[in-house]
Every structure is written in structure tokens, then in C-alpha cells.
Amino acid sequence: MTAPGRRSSTFTRLLRHGFTDASAAERLxxxxxxxxxxxDPVLLEALGATADPDQALLGLVRLLEAQPDPTAxxxxxxxxxxxxxxxxxxxxxxxASAALADxxxxxxxxxxxxxxxxxxDLHPGVEEFERGLAEAGDPVSLRVAYRRCLLSIAARDVCGxxxxxxxxxxxxxxxxxTLRAALAIARAAAPEDAALxxxxxxxxxxxxxxxxxxxxxxxxxxxGEAVDGADEGKAxxxxxxxxxxxxxxxxxxxxEGSIWPVDANLRPEGRNxxxxxxxxxxxxxYQRWAKTWEFQALLKAxxxxxxxxxxxxxxxxxxxxxxxxxxxxxFVADVQKxxxxxxxNIPAAEVDRELKLGPGGLRDVEFAVQLLxxxxxxxxxxxxxxxxxxxxxxxxxxxxxxxxxxxxxxxxYRFLRSxxxxxxxxxxxxxxxxxxxxxxxxxxxxxxxxxxxxxxxxTREWRRHTAVVRRLHEKLFYRPLLDAVAQLxxxxxxxxxxxxxxxxxxxxxxxxxxxxxxxxxxxxxxxRKAAIQRTxxxxxxxxxxxxxxxxxxxxxxxxxxxxxGKTPWYLRLLRDEGAAAExxxxxxxxGRLAPDLLMRAPEAVALLGDGDGGGLGPRGRDxxxxxxxxxxxxxxGAVQAVTAARGVxxxxxFRTAAADIVGSYGTETHPAVADQGALxxxxxxxxxxxxxxxxxxxxxxxxxxxxGEELPTRFAVIGMGxxxxxxxxxxxxxxxxxxxxxxxxxxxxxxxxxxxxVVSEMRRLLQIPSADPPLLIDADLRPEGKSxxxxxxxKSYxxxxxxxxxxxxxxxxxRAEPVAGDEDLGRxxxxxxxxxxxxxxxxxxxAVREIRRLKAxxxxxxxxxxxxxxxxxKLGPGGLxxxxxxxQLMQLRHGHAEPGLRTTRxxxxxxxxxxxxxISAEDAETLDEAWVLATRVRNAVxxxxxxxxxxFPSDGREVAAVGxxxxxxxxxxxxxxxxxxxTARRARSVVEELFYGG
Length: 998
What we know:
Layout: H1 9-16, H2 22-29, H3 41-48, H4 53-66, H5 70-82, H6 84-96, H7 98-106, H8 119-122, H9 126-133, H10 139-158, H11 164-189, H12 191-196, E1 197-203, H13 205-208, E2 218-226, H14 232-251, E3 262-263, E4 276-277, H15 279-288, H16 292-298, E5 302-306, H17 308-322, H18 331-344, H19 362-376, H20 388-397, H21 403-427, H22 438-447, H23 454-472, H24 475-486, H25 497-506, H26 512-523, H27 528-545, H28 550-564, H29 568-576, H30 580-588, H31 593-600, H32 621-634, H33 638-665, H34 676-707, E6 713-719, H35 721-724, E7 734-742, H36 748-767, E8 777-778, E9 791-793, H37 794-803, H38 807-813, E10 817-821, H39 823-837, H40 845-861, H41 880-894, H42 906-915, H43 921-945, H44 956-965, H45 973-996
Parallel strand pairs: 2-3, 2-4, 7-8, 7-9
Antiparallel strand pairs: 1-2, 1-5, 6-7, 6-10
Helix pairs in contact: 1-2, 2-4, 4-6, 4-7, 5-6, 6-10, 9-11, 10-11, 11-14, 15-17, 18-19, 19-20, 20-21, 21-23, 22-23, 24-26, 24-27, 25-26, 26-28, 27-28, 27-30, 28-30, 30-33, 31-33, 32-33, 32-34, 33-34, 34-36, 34-43, 38-39, 41-42, 41-45, 42-43, 43-44, 43-45
């Protein structure tokens, strides 16, 4: 007897053998059932070798208790101790699967299925499983027989007799035998239906690919034909009854549970289509209507039950279509978009535990392999395997995937599939989530041979393999392209030129020959630059392919690298700064404007980093003005000074454009900015502040060059239009008016001459042809327009506005704001115009009618000939003009009474009108949405084309690039245009009511 407070030697031995509840284990070992063998060291050693010794011991006691008599119990114990194969198999299953332990407790004689240890038992196929199910004549007995077969598969798996690929193949073969048995039950129940039709069952998904899980939907497609002389309609109805009955036999829950769901939703038209179709009907659908993912699914199609000859005809008929899928427009984008959609649909709380669908999971490997099969399988029949690991091996053998990459992916896939199997085997439940409970993780880790610290080791290995997949699954497409052109490893299988061309075309490159030349120039050689670029390019090529113009992205990257490739900080930035490489790829492939700005001074690529010295955040006006004035102060003469100011402007335009592109596209670590209005406001404020700072610097340079420190007249620049409203776009001119006031003792003529000379010189210097984009100054909103003097004194403005001011000029002054020059003069100009733009009594009826007449005339006369009014962002219905005139009318009417309306900014004024109940919340939201969208389109057009435009481009690639900027994927241009028309139409209806009808 053990002394109180001391542990028995058995207790200690149990802990040493991996038991976690040694007290409970001692009690079980002391039970009557195990009394004859409780001290047998062989038993304890065998239990300690299982995934969960506690669970294995409990399962063994339950199995012994369930034996019908002492003789049967003695037979089990004797065999267990004497026969190592049975001992390892039985205890291994009991320690890994509580569900199969339950099955053995319900069917205590089924342990005999684990005794047989003949060579043919090591790797059974469909024929052996059919024999195991032969006596099952109803759904209940089929379930019992199925689990008896499953016992032997699980035993070989947990004992290491079979590897993961062999286990998955056996599970698929068992599923095939089960489908055949279920169909036989259905036929026996309705022989008259069976006599009318031929019915083929085509396995899809993992069953078709011969790589099934323990618990998974079994995906199928049904093909039916009438037997000779039978009516086709009646035959299809009969085949549908048989197929439905077969599915129920497998799927319905009975006293023995269910087997697995049979899922026919991969059929044409999914669940909305007929369950059974004729072969000709299948063929017609795939020829006319099938989407890319449906051809991808057909990679694994395999006839498994019913009329095998008909099934083979189905596969033969559809096979040519499968291998033509890569020629479809947007093929790769469609496949990758579907993959992204899968990830996006995972609940956020589960994404990090998703073994199958999460980033770096099983689906990433499967999608990558299938994509490469579809691209290259048409020309290379060796790639046409439905099994992921076999296909991966074939891709590596043919040079379509780097050998080392293939080895790493193979290892990761096998490990992740093994985890998935162990997770599902425990309860025989369909799940792909890694459990959170330490006991579950311990069992899984031990079952995979991780014994020192199972939980920590399992977590570490799982994360390591997931990281490998995440790093490699997209590079698989691109690394062999580099190997094909760099030719650094003699003897390695590599892509042929034709295969490289096929892959580039599939990835969206319009000129694969040029792309290969760029890759060769970038990746060839043994220099440090080439080595780093070979590392970067597989990732960059993927980001380029995600854009509307991959060719431009690659060409622009070559240009930047040619300019900066010998600069140490450039390669270090791309290699070490996490965001820099992806930001650069997005910017270089999003259109012409940002790359053009970058090529004029490639060192601006440093802004794309995420370190202390970089960043794409906007810089305030004070900061910009301080930098520009400092540069002007250091310059020798006005020309050099304004050149420096324009250089800062170019760099900051690039910063703004890059931030806009990255925010609109999103990156792997930061999703696209959801608030479109915030993006518009950021661009408008940044470009407006930059323009104001540039004008301030140019004004300082001109004055200093012509007059020294002080101009003979005070001088101010007043921003108008979008400039005054802080709403400038990339292609906007600077709308301004100029005001001056002679200094004391200076004559009117001298002051006017000086002011006019300043304006003339500012305009000239800002438009001198150079590497920097010009800044056009537009003063047409001044009194009397082009017919009036370019510069007026404050008194002249006062006199003009008092005598001659028209209502359109009051409307234009709503957006007037000082932007440069003498601050006091600018403030007094604002005081002068406030009574005009915010009249104390609002607008009279005649003034309102005049504004409406002007608007109607502008709509009729100014729209460019041939333009589609519904897509014109400025003058079309529901466009910028509609929204702005509606808001400005409210400002003119109510600005005096409502201080919130006294703003130059359209969106702020609209919000103020809403707060003052001048417009409903719904109408305000409609107008705001339309204004933001129209502004975004204009910004997109400038970014994409490199020149301003008010309507969508007609070129296919350009309009697709606009769509990507706006958040639309490949092939969604029609959706984008429909959405714009719909948004504009809703806004126009509000304008009709508030502007024309109010």
C-alpha cells in the first residue's frame, strides 16, 4: 500500500508515458476488464505511444465492456498483447479518434477489422472497399460498413503505414465504393427508373482529385442519357430520382449518423440548374455560359459510379474546353479574384485559425497549382493530374515551378493536410479550424510525432509552413520566368520561350516579348543589383499583374532601376522597407502621371518607404511654403528660384499621387481606404496647398529679382474656383484674381505697371518648358473676364462691384480665398466681397431666374460635341456643375443667416446646409456621393492618361485602370459605368427639385 502523500510507482510511470490524468488512468487500469493485463509493460508502452494515452485507455475499457461475453473479452486482450500490429492499430485509433472509439463501443466486433495484416491490406483500393461494403443493403448498414472500412484507413494513417497522400487516396477510393453502394441501393428501390436511363456519377473536388479528407462534402456532377428506345424526358426524370435517392442514402442522418453530404452544386447553373443533364446539355452549357472557375473545377472531374462509359465520354468531351480556359480574357484575374473572395468571406475571428482557406493555407497551394496547370496544360499533357501533389511534382519536372519552391510547397502541403486530417479524425466532423484548447493541440501534435513540447512545436511548425506557402504561392507564377531569362543554373529544367510567353499572356501582359526583354535586362548577371532584383521581381510581377496595365508597370520599373540601380540606398530601400516595394509596384502600374513625375527625378522613390525618412503623408501648407521660400532665397535669380519651386511642386505632386494610388488600391498590409470622400479631400487639400505655396515662392522670386525686398504696391493673389475651394485636382489650372494697392507715395501708374509686370513674369516662369510640369494661371474669373484689366486695385474692385457686378460674379466669389501675397490686403478683399456673396436679404427672384438661365445655357452650349452627357463628370446630369450650382444657390440665398454656409468648400457647405435643414439628409448624401465620385473619376483620368479629362477614357486598358482606381476588379468596367450613371441620375433628380424647382 502506498503511504499517504506519496505517489505510487504506477502513477509516476503513467505520467512518464504521457498520461495527463494519471489518477483516472490508475482507476481504469484497476478495472475488472483490464485486471489480467494491468501490469503488462507492453500495454503501457503501447498506450504511451498514442496521440492521447488517456483517451486511448478509456476507449479500450469501453470496448472491453462492450464485448458480449468473457470469452470475447479474453480474445481481445490476448490478441492485443500478443499481436503488435493489432495493438498499434487499435490503440492508435482509440487515442486519435473519439468518434471511432464510439463506433467500436457500439459495434464491439469491428475490432477484428484491424487484425488482418496481409500485404494487400496495406494499400487497399476501390475493389477491396467494395468487398467491405458488399453486404450493406440499406443506409444504416452502409454507415456501419463504411466506418468499419474507415477504421482500417485511420489505423494505417496513425501508425504511419501510409503517408498523407496515400491516406487521402484511400479515403477517395472508399468514397467511390460508397457512392456505388448508395447508387445500388437507390436502383434496387426503383428498378423501373434504373431500366429507363444511363446515369454516370462524376466525382469533383477532392474526391475527384483522389485526395479526400476524413470528413468532407463529396462533390459530384450527374450525367444522364436515355437507354435505347426510351423517352429522353422520362429518362432524365428517372435519373434525377435515382441521383436524389443516392445523395440521401449518403447524407441523411440515421441512428448511425450520416456518412458525408453529397454536394452537386458544382453542376451547370449550380443549385438553380437541373440535377441531371444529358452530355449534350453539359457541353452546350460549358461552351456558352461557363465561368472560369467552372473550368478550374473540371480539372478534377473523374467518373466514379454508375455508367462509367458515359462518364468517360463526359470527361473526353469537356477536356478540350478545360485546356482552352487560359485563353479567356481576365483568366488569371478571375482565378485570383475568386481566391481573394474566399479569404474575404472568412469571419475575422477565425481567419488566423483557418487551415484550409486562410492566407498561407491549403487553398493557396491548390489554387496556385491549378492556375499553372490551366496555363501550361494545353501544351503539356503531363500536367493534367487532378491530384495536387502529383501536379506539383509534374510542374517542377517540367520547369514550370522552381524545384526548391516545389519541395518546400510539397512539405508544407503535406504537413497542413496532416493537421487537417488529425483535426477531423477526432470527432469525424467537417472542420478546418485549428482548435484553441491546449488538450486538442497536444493530441494533434503528438499524433504528428511532436512529443517534446507538442503544443509549442505544433504551433511553431504550423506557422512556419503557413509562412512558406504565403511567401511562395504567388511567386510560383513568376520565379520560373526569371530563371528562363537569367540562365544562372545550368542543367535545371526551365520554361521554354513559348511557355514563358503563354504564362505572361495569361497573367495579363499584352506584349510578352517586350516583358521578357525587360526581365532579362533586370535579372541577368551576377551583380548585386541583379541578385536583389531577382529576389524582388517575383513579388513585383504579381503586383503588376494585379493592375490594369502590367506591361507599363514592368517597363517603368526597368526605367527606374536603370536610373537608380547603382544607388545603394535604392536597392536597400526596396529590399528592407516593408511597404516600399509594393507601393512602387502600385504606383508604376496605375497610369502615366505618377511614373512620369517619378522619372523626372527618380530619387523621389525614397518617399515610398515606411521608415523615418519617407512616408506618403500630406505635408501642410506652412511646411511647403517654408521649404519653397527657403529654396527661392538660396537661388541666383528668378529663373533658378522658380525652377527650384517647381521641383518641389513636382516632388510633392508625386507624393500626393502615390498616396492616392496606394490608398485607392490598398496593399497587403493596409486595405484600400473605404471613405472615398476622405481620399478626395486629401488630394484636393494637398494639391491646393502645394499650388498656393508654389505661387507664394514664385511671387517672392519675381519681386526680389525686379524690385529687391519690396514691391512698390501691396499685392495679393486670390484663389478662385476649385483653387479657392481647396478642391484642385491633378490636372487643374490655378483660377485666381489679382489685387494690389499702391504703397504710400507711389503713383497709380507705377503701381499698376509693377503689378502687371509681376503677374506677367509669374505666368511666364511657371510655364517655361522644363522637366517639371507647368502651372497654368487662369485669371478669367476677374471682373469683365478676358476683356477686363488683369490686375485691379482694391478701390477699383470696390467701384466695379458697387456699380456693375452681375449675379454670376457674386456666385464666382463664393469660392474666393487669399492664397499668396499681402495677408492684410487679402483679408480686406474678403471683407469687400462678403456682402456680395452672402447678401443680407438673400437673392431676389430675378437673380435666381438669372442663375438658372445661365446654368441651362451652359448645359446646352458647353458640353463637347460627341461627348456622352450621362458620363461627363463636369457638365453632365448629376455631375460636378449640377452639385456645385445647387450648393452655391443655397449659399447665396442663406449664407448671410447661416454662418456655416460661409465656406469656399463644396462638401463643407453641403454639410452646413444639411445641419441648417435646408436640405434633407438623404438628398445631401446623394449630392455628396455624386460630387465625390465625379471628382474621383477626374482624378483617375489624370492619373491614368497623364492629361486632364472630364469623361471616361475610350481606350480599354485606360478605362480598366480607372476602374481599378475606383475599386472595380478586372472585367467590371460595365459595372463601374452603370454605377456612375446610377449615382449621377439620383443626383440629377435632387438638382431638378432643389435648383430648378425650389
